[in-house]
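INFO batch 0412 | record 1 of 1 | parsing
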Amino acid sequence: MNATLAGIAAALLYAVASAMLGRQLLRREKPRAPAIQALGGLALPLHLISIHAQIYQPAGLDLGLFQISSLVGWLIAALAIGMSLYKPIISITVAAFPLAILGLILSLFAPSTYTPVSTLSPGAESHILLSILAYSVLTIAAAQALLVAIQDRHLRTHKQGLMNALPPLQTMESLLFSLIGTGFVLLTLAIVTGFLTLNDLFAQHVAHKTVLTLAAWAVFAVLLAGRHWLGWRGPTAIRFTLWGFALLLLGFYGSKLVLELVLSRSA
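INFO prediction complete | emitting tokens
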């Protein structure tokens, strides 16, 4: 199948699932998980066809900003669907599917200045894979934190809002910290493999990325320590999650955006 057509078809399936879920949440109905999972499940292989064709080029691997965005979107959608099969959290796809659509559209239609990489060492491959996985999991954690914030506010103000459409707040918070813990482990491994295998993580063109990533790691470490020792939850946990994600977002995407779109260099 043509990669562009596969990508467009996947985006349409994600859009239909998002519209269906959004309508149900606005009506304060319990989301119909099987239908949304089925639409997302049909989109995933089509999305993967598009990603594979874009990243694996004759000249090497195209790891440009938009191609990585599409890959991250696919991972976020796949993780969200996978988690919803075991827990009543299909609502997380209300953020996951639009992110997948955004990544797909950018990769298909936005121009790229990235120069494909012909060879990568096993260490560099591990670092890249772990970084993408960590960012994907922590992106879902940030989306989950926003849902928890809305739910917590409605609970405090005695509003129904989304209360009837979402799982209990305790379940939502438990999932949030499971995601943060998993993302933190992946981020730690990504940082360690980066220091062990890459030449200079503090070189001029990647120093800011390294510093921001380490700052994000520290924020998540403090949050998990506060959760364990002080029982942090609610607004405190939400703030730390969003601060950590904001730093990671700047480090992960900010550096690639500047290097590729402003300086026309590969990173």
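INFO post-check: The mean pLDDT is 85.
INFO record closed
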